[in-house]
Design brief:
elongated; Tetracycline Repressor, domain 2; mainly alpha; disordered C terminus; 9 helices
């Protein structure tokens, strides 16, 4: 089996990358089976590592769920920053934000549906997630309101519009397959077209579609909220970070569990084989 090669410099960076691999694969399993129907044994079996090895990276299922929420929301805030850098109207900003967010969440995280429900989170974690979610929603509402003022978006209930958008985005993983008829980029642009053309006025244009969406990993680990990415108390496990190139989009986008297994596999797990997982079908 080929060794896991990387150009990282420190053991902490290697640990974070492996931990992130665990989180991504665990998210895919939870998205497929449901949070309450997934155990750490299921995650360990899919990754072909012992449960003890898994505990080197995560404490429990609740931690997986919390970290997935935070990674997803960070992607949304990074998408907002990209939109504000390149968009000139409220319509532009909302459209560009959605194009980036759909790509990043489904390429790098692979489980938007996991983050649509906060009720399974611990109370303390739920408060943190809701606060960051409210921040993201406020940014989206501000784009709508800007569009009302500049004439590029027709007047609708802004909160209802945001909830409609996010509801559509968070269901993608229930039907999306990398082997399906459409690439993820085509899905993102098509969904944004359908949703945005219900909001745009004659003054709105789609010129912002020429702005390239960079791979999420190339954005680095800057804090999108401006208040500090580390939201845990000192002594808690460090936050997972996206590896370079994790969000890179192409026809070769894959949710390849074998690649994840090779990243975190314990030495004694060499030679093990995975069980074939159920394949999703793109409608």
């Amino acid at each position: 089996m080929p060794r896991w090669k990387n150009g990282l410099q420190t053991s902490d960076e290697v640990f974070q990358l492996k931990r992130n691999a665990v989180l991504r694969e665990a998210t895919r399993i939870i998205a497929r089976n449901g949070f309450h129907n997934t155990s750490l044994d299921d995650v360990a079996e899919a990754l072909q590592v012992s449960k003890g090895t898994l505990y080197n990276y995560i404490a429990d299922k609740q931690e997986i769920l919390f970290e997935c929420h935070i990674m997803s929301l960070d992607m949304g805030l990074h998408a907002a920053a990209l939109a504000e850098e390149h968009g000139t109207t409220g319509y532009d900003k909302l459209r560009l934000n959605m194009r980036a967010y759909i790509r990043w969440q489904n390429q790098a995280l692979g489980g938007g549906g996991v983050t649509s429900d906060v009720t399974a989170l611990r109370p303390a974690d739920r408060r943190i997630v809701i606060a960051r979610r409210d921040e993201l929603e406020a940014r989206l509402v501000s784009y709508l309101q800007e569009g009302f003022r500049d004439g590029t978006i027709r007047r609708v209930d802004p909160k209802l519009a945001v909830f409609t958008f996010m509801g559509a985005v968070n269901t993608i993983q229930s039907w999306y397959s990398p082997k399906g008829r459409l690439e993820l980029g085509e899905i993102a642009d098509g969904m944004v077209d359908i949703l945005m053309h219900g909001l745009g006025t004659g003054a709105a244009h789609d010129d912002v579609d020429t702005v390239p969406i960079p791979p999420y990993g190339l954005l680095g680990n800057s804090d999108p909220s401006g208040v500090g990415t580390s939201i845990r108390q000192s002594g808690d496990a460090p936050m997972a970070r996206m590896p370079a190139g994790a969000g890179q989009g192409s026809k070769n986008v894959k949710t390849d569990a074998a690649a994840e297994r090779s990243r975190i596999r314990a030495p004694q797990a060499k030679g093990a084989r995975s069980k074939p997982g159920a394949k999703k079908r793109q409608r």
